[in-house]
Amino acid sequence: MKDYAVLAKDHVKVDSLEKVMGTAKFAADYKMPNMLYGGVFRSTVPHAYVKKLNLEKARALPGVACALDHTAIPGKNRFGIIFKDEPCLVDDKVRRYGDAIAVVAAETPELVQDALDLIEVEYEELEAVSSFERAMEEDSPKVHGDTNVNVKKHLEYGNVDEAWAKCDVIVENTYSTHILSHMFIEPDAGIAYLDEQGVMNVIVSTQNAHYDRNEVAAMLGVPQNRVRVKQAVTGGGFGGKLDISVQLHCALMVWHTKRPVKMVRSRSESTMVSSKRHPMTMKCKTGATKDGKLVAVECHMTCDAGAYSSYAPAVIGRAPVHIVGPYECPNVRCDAVFAYTNNPMCGAFRGFGVPQAAVCHEGQMNALAKALHMSPLEIRMINAQKVGSVIPTGQKLTESVGFMDTLVQARDKAAEVMPEALDRLKKD
């Protein structure tokens, strides 16, 4: 066995003591002298032009330091992990319920809410695109540009069309997964301030400090070396804190007030506007020989990606690659289409499309096992990837393929602790 410097060695987790002692400083714990509190005025309709926006009553409220719309942004008003398609503050139209239209900074959280309540907005409402199917119709309203197609992906390996003739059994099913919210224990929070050198500092609950720094700099129109982002101790993220949350709004209000600004989203606000897991529909056709060996897989994958792209190009890249799961299959075709809608934005969420694909390929393996009168365990062991297997991208696996070992150990442990259940599994 190799003598690694880190692997297989005991190490103390660097932040473990402060967490168990309760001294860890999360983003919402930060306070500074002369600090303001920030809040966001959000849309209450999913799709609309903003015809009028009146901030004057909010600005006139004693204790309010600023009330800003998109005209107050000194740099770029578009950000995004991969596609720059989301506004810091709405400048053309609302694309989802909860879009940020204006921000307010005030002396107390209560004054922030009072000021938000004084903001007046007039909408010209548009038809909301609420499903993938409606998004793809020719006469559908367009969420962005002249098409609702967010991103497409095609994967082709082997010769699927010819492979069906070699199959003794074919199963076809449709699988759907639903939208999910991360529900991290700590809601989005952060604080921003200008230091003595005039550098914008942002301390935030995040998973993506370098990306945050780049987006804050672009929004302010300053070089990246004029922005510093620090990740506070983060109370859960799971992918949901890879996207921008309070960073831009805090920095914008600091830019105009020259005072520190702190923002802590309520649980309802966090749930409303944070990214979600992509809901997918997968129509899958899988063929095998009578001895259970996979021959071909064809899948059509569609997804309502919501109002903004976030990590959709990465998710659509991974889901088709994993459509056969940890199984050998010589012929694979997958076509995937993600659509813009006026629904909540979807993004990174523990697996980047692989959990959705797993629902499909594991369902298909169970369906094949039933059709062939095999146990679900047996058909998996027949097709399990191993060292030397080639996956649908053409990559040959040369090491660290532990799926078969896992199946064997799971089978042996099941036989030890619940032999009756294992017997039933074999009969089924």
Report on this structure:
The chain is globular. The two termini are 41 Å apart. Strands 3-5-1-13-10-11-12 form a seven-stranded mixed beta sheet, with helices on both faces. Strands 7-17-16-15-8 form a five-stranded mixed beta sheet. Helix content is 28%, strand content 25%. It has 428 residues and is an alpha+beta fold. A hairpin with a 5-residue loop joins strand 15 (280-288) and strand 16. Helix 6 (209-220) packs across helix 7 (247-257), helix 9 runs parallel beside helix 10 (354-372) and helix 12 (403-417) packs across helix 13. It has 13 helices and 17 strands. The protein has a domain at 133-180 and 276-427: Aldehyde oxidase/xanthine dehydrogenase, molybdopterin binding domain (Aldehyde Oxidoreductase, domain 4), CATH 3.30.365. The chain has helices spanning 16-20, 56-60, 109-118, 132-136, 160-163, 209-220, 247-257, 267-273, 312-321, 354-372, 376-383, 403-417, 419-427; strands spanning 36-42, 48-54, 64-68, 93-94, 100-106, 120-125, 149-157, 169-176, 180-181, 189-194, 200-204, 227-231, 261-264, 276-277, 280-288, 294-306, 332-340.
Task: Please sum up the structure shown.
With 428 residues, the protein is of the alpha+beta class.
Secondary structure blueprint with pairings:
Layout: H1 16-20, E1 36-42, E2 48-54, H2 56-60, E3 64-68, E4 93-94, E5 100-106, H3 109-118, E6 120-125, H4 132-136, E7 149-157, H5 160-163, E8 169-176, E9 180-181, E10 189-194, E11 200-204, H6 209-220, E12 227-231, H7 247-257, E13 261-264, H8 267-273, E14 276-277, E15 280-288, E16 294-306, H9 312-321, E17 332-340, H10 354-372, H11 376-383, H12 403-417, H13 419-427
Parallel strand pairs: 1-13, 11-12, 16-17
Antiparallel strand pairs: 1-5, 2-4, 2-6, 3-5, 7-17, 8-15, 9-14, 10-11, 10-13, 15-16
Helix pairs in contact: 6-7, 9-10, 10-11, 12-13
